[in-house]
Structures are given as structure tokens and as C-alpha cells.
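Attaching the record inline, Q. Sequence:
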Amino acid sequence: MMKKISALRLLCAALVTAAFCVPVWAQQSPEKAADASSTGTVVDQPAVNLDKALKDEGKWYFSWGYSRQQYAPSDIHVSQPAQGNDFTLHQVSASDYPGSVSDAVNSLFKLDFTSPQENVRVGYFLNPEKTFAIEFNYDHSKYNTDAGQSVRVSGTVNNAPASSPMVLGLPTFDYGLHNGFNHLMVNAVWFHHLHGPKQEPGELQLISRLGAGILLPHADNTIFGNHNEVGPKGERVCCFDSHDWWQVNGWTAGAEVGVRYRVYKNIYVEATQKFAYGVLRGVPVYQGTADHSVWMSEQVFSTGFLF
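Structure, as predicted:
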């Protein structure tokens, strides 16, 4: 019996020893032996694998931020055949919402995170150096014509030649893409190292974007006392029916440049300036549609992480 136990112990010891030796033998592959014989050095394969794994991390990134927009004056064309209206308002000025930085801050303190204009970026690096990426871009901007302005009007109003000027505001003409003037884009993104350790906390990068996509606005307007109704938000959400809350009403293209600073290993902050051009067609108004083009300047401040 004692001999059997001793033999069993010896067998177990041999198995344990073999288990520890297998990884060592695996490291001494023919390729490694060739490297060692040719260079006189030994490659630390586990270290190489670890380095590769670290480089493979952080291929994706996500950010959430807020922005302010400024709009160049633009012409808005309105067609309402049943009302006898086919007119253009010239050089209409518009603003974003909230109307001030303090309004935006108050919304955040109230945990109303979507009242300010939020911005979302989701990107994927396409090279190991992480200097080029493709990303999805969502800008929930807002557009509202400024009340009280006086603009020139041409065309036909109520089957008669339009008289100028027209003072905008309720109930005459109030036009908004308030929920909002949504840009859904696909961007090509470039990163250039400026300062600090590469891909480490303290790194400062120049970031630039170029992209295009669709405009998905929610129209909210009143023209000559008639308010446009698209129905409750929860019933018809998107995207091609005239009664949907959000509708595909055009296209957009833009360029963006700024800086990204890595605060922690996988956390960064970003500040950018964006310029975009959007063309809107068939925006719903009461018994008709509106068309216009918009130049937008936008400042975006966001926080993100790599994963």
C-alpha cells in the first residue's frame, strides 16, 4: 500500500512539473530559437503579447458634450397652395436655445440634460497608431427665427403680391427647428500629436473632422396664425411621414477642428469649432412646406472615454 501511495505521489509530482514546463517549452518555438541563434538575444514573448494587447485596447471612443450655435442670415421659402401663399422671406436671422450660457447651466443643474444642445460622437480607430478614425456624429442643435426682426418679403401672400417688410414673431411668422435641427453625420477624423506622452495622460492632440449626413429636424412653426401640428412625440416618431415627430428633410456637410486632452488613461476632454452647411427641403408647415439653406457655426465642449 505504501509503495502504491508513493508511486501515486511521484506521478502527481511529475504531472505538476510537466504543467509548469509546457509554457516554457512553448516559448522556445522554432522561430524564437532561430531569432536567438541569429541575433544572440532572447525575445520575451509574453511581454510582446502584453504590448500588443495594450495597443489593441482603446480602439473605440465615445463622447457626450454640449454646444452653442450661430447661424448666418438665410432666405426661407414657404409654399402653402391651399392658403394662396408662395413667398420668400429674405435674410432671416435665427438663434439657438437656450438663449444664454446661464440658461444652459441652469438646465444641467435641474438634470435636464437634453434642453441644451447635446453632441454625441462614437468613433473607431482604423490604424494601430490611432491617428485616423471613422465616427458617427449626432448634433442636437436648435434653430429659432428671431422675433421682432423686420425682413423683406417677395412672392405671393393670400393670392396677392407680398408687401414688405414683415415683422416676424407670433402670430405672423414664428419658425423653429427646436427639437431640433438634428445633424446625423459620418465623419473621417484625424489626430495629430501636439504635446505630452503619446497615448498617455497629459497628451494634447490636434483633432480635425470632415463629414456629411442627413438632417432630421422637428418642425415647430406658426404662419399667419396657423400652427403646424405633427402629432404627439410618442405616437409617430420617425422619419418619412408628414406627421412624424422627426423627419428626414435634407442633408448636411461640415468640417471641425480643435484639441483633445487626455486627462486620465481612458478619459479625455475636447473643445472644437465646427462649420456646417445644411439644405432643408419639404419642412412641414401648416398645409404646406418650407425650404431653406443654413450656414452654422458651432462650438462643442465634450468629455469622452476610450474602450
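Confidence is low (pLDDT under 50) at residues 1-38. The domain at 60-306 is CATH 2.40.160.20 (Porin).

More tomorrow.
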